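Running log. JK asked me to keep both predictions on one page so they can be read side by side. First protein, sequence followed by its tokens:
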Amino acid sequence: MTQAFLPELPGLMIEDQVRAALLEDLGRAGDITSNATIGADRLAEARMNSREAGVIAGLPLAEAAFRLINPAISFEALVEDGARVEPGTMIARISGPARGVLSAERVALNYLMHLSGIATHTARFADAIAHTSARLTCTRKTLPGLRAVEKYAVRCGGGSSHRYGLYDAILIKDNHIAVAGGIVQALQAARAFAGHLVRIEIEVDTLEQFAEVLKEGADVCLLDNMGPDMLRDAVAMNTSGSGGRIVLEASGNVSLETITAIAETGVDFISTSKITMAAPTLDIGLDIGIS
């Protein structure tokens, strides 16, 4: 398999995201605790350490938090996003004006802990299917306002991204089919509407529906809530006959306990919201000194 490039977030996207978080925290008066208790000339040194094993994601956002608070703060990342770390691993060194370090601390850690948690949970799922050709992908089930960075974290953990929103691919689900009048009607309407670069995916939950899709044609078929036996039947149907092979995506009832059996059926992709919506945070701490 071709090695994928490491994910990268555009600087402008990072700044907009982090600036909004800092403004939410600073409000109209700024960090009144630090301003009240720490002199403007005090300097501080800090270390970010992982307190448990995991995969790191979010370092560019953590760096931006300190830089936007005070450009005089130095942030030195000691690992890269996507790195697997053990408990006690030092992730970054921070130094500079103490007020700024303390003011940015929580926003920086919030991003780093949340995104590293997603990357870590994603890696658990990806590791479970690494022996197969199936690829793990996330969904649109992300926290509002955090989709781009959460999908970035999924990629840091070894997963891939489904569509980013309603605008970049057509995904015909069961409710669309019901309103459109059926699978054939929905697919024909989608093809008439879509540009030549827009892919069309349709969701089915029975083999009878899948047979209709094979006959009518689609780029991708989402096999929803099918068990391993039914998924194997769908893979067999897809690779036989003259209808041509389409990409198969399994979804529904995906967990760490079920994903290996799903992947071993021969599907191409497995999508799950659990890697974004059910990921616990990774415990990361910031230990500070003064000078």
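And the second, directly underneath as requested:
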Amino acid sequence: MRIDAHQHFWRPGRGDYGWLTPEAHPAICRDFGPDDLAPLLDGAGVERTVLVQAAPTAAETAFLLGLAAATPFVAGVVGWADLEAPGAPAAIAALATDPNLVGLRPMLQDLADDAWILRPSVAPALDAMERAGLRFDALVKPRHLPHLARLLAARPALKVVIDHGAKPDIAGRDIDRWAAEMRAIAANSGACCKLSGLVTEADEKWTEGDLAPYVDLLLDAFGPARLMWGSDWPVVNEAGGYAAWHSAAAALTERCSPDDRDLIFGGTAAAFYAITS
């Protein structure tokens, strides 16, 4: 099974995508839905997807769960909940009754406190996620990695995947500290990592050579059984599009065996998100 482990749908007119403006994101500031993605999946041979939140609202999560229920290729939704709210455990337990919900993602990269996830006020929500068997998508940048490492050490039972390889500064050729911290996380935890979102961190006219050192690091540190490919569509439209990134990822993983590539392009996501069909 080929799985795109990270894609989005949105309707800006809903009003809760504060980051998505025509000025900042002219190429993607419009509605994107299942009918837009379906031909791209067919072209890449992708059968199922994981639909990920893009707005920090309960309303968007409800919207995505509705789309998932009506879209056969969506295997699961990573939604959002206010993890710091007093009623978070009950809200998470209620959300988890929806069979399409597979995980939650706080938008850590947008929060003022880089160590927010370590706040005691968030702990009850993380406890509730563990009880419900929900996965945690870590939307982080390199500055968050020391805090994420502490979370992983404190919560070995929490199933965590790092989105977009932690968004290394590929355009700035800044690799050493990111590489060391990602290697440490891989060695000292069971976290997985998404091979996604890299092209939007690179130069506008990126090449496979620009991406190679970062992809190689992730392959060597996490291994295919803990690495999953995702498109980050439609954000990827700002950096060449779905087909270009899928082709580059295929080329950059050619050194892997067929079995290992099966893991990267589907098997790891299926195991992590418990996708069985």
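Observation for JK regarding the second prediction: The mean pLDDT is 98.
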